[in-house]
Amino acid sequence: MQDQGCAEPVRVDVDRDDAITTTWGDGHTTRVDLALLRERCPCAQCQALRDAGEAVWSGDAQSLRVTGAELVGAWGLGLAWSDGHATGVYEWGLLRSWCACPDCSAR
Ligand SMILES: [Zn+2]
Ligand SMILES: [Zn+2]
User: Fold this and answer.
1) Which residues make beta-bridge pairs with 12?
2) What is the domain-level CATH number for residue 8?
3) Side by side, which strands form the sheet with 19-24?
4) Minimum-distance ligand to the CA of 7?
């Protein structure tokens, strides 16, 4: 197995109005709420907003939806949002680092 094996997904479940749940090669599961994903969008545009101390997204979490999700090569997940934003590609390692389960939080 490769060094990065634990950060490669074996399964990605996209619940378009709730959360994205990724199951990793080591059997671990990471669930991240959509609102959190949207706020942490890693694209250059959102990064610039964060750097400037501005809100990346100020929409309503209740109405936020994922309108499209696609694997980008072997390294991440591209997400399109109901607010029209679609430039963020979430690297697997990034998604894994956002895991908020008791095990990961304790680390
Ligand atoms: Zn973005
Ligand atoms: Zn975890």
Assistant:
1) 22
2) 3.30.2020.30
3) 9-15, 19-24, 29-33
4) 2
1 alpha carbon – ligand 1 mean position (Å)? 32
pLDDT of amino acid 2: 44
**pLDDT above 90 as % of the chain:** 84
CA–centroid distance for 8 within its chain = 13
Model pLDDT, residue 86: 97
Question: Which ligand is the nearest neighbour of the Cα of 41?
Answer: 1
Residues 6+ apart with CB under 8 A from 8: 2, 24, 25, 74, 92
Residues of the chain with pLDDT under 70: 1-6
**Residue 73 Cα to ligand 2 middle (Å):** 24
Domain extent for 96: 4-105
In whole angstroms, what is the distance from residue 107 CA to residue 98 CA? 12
Tally of domains in the chain? 1
| Res 7: pLDDT | 77
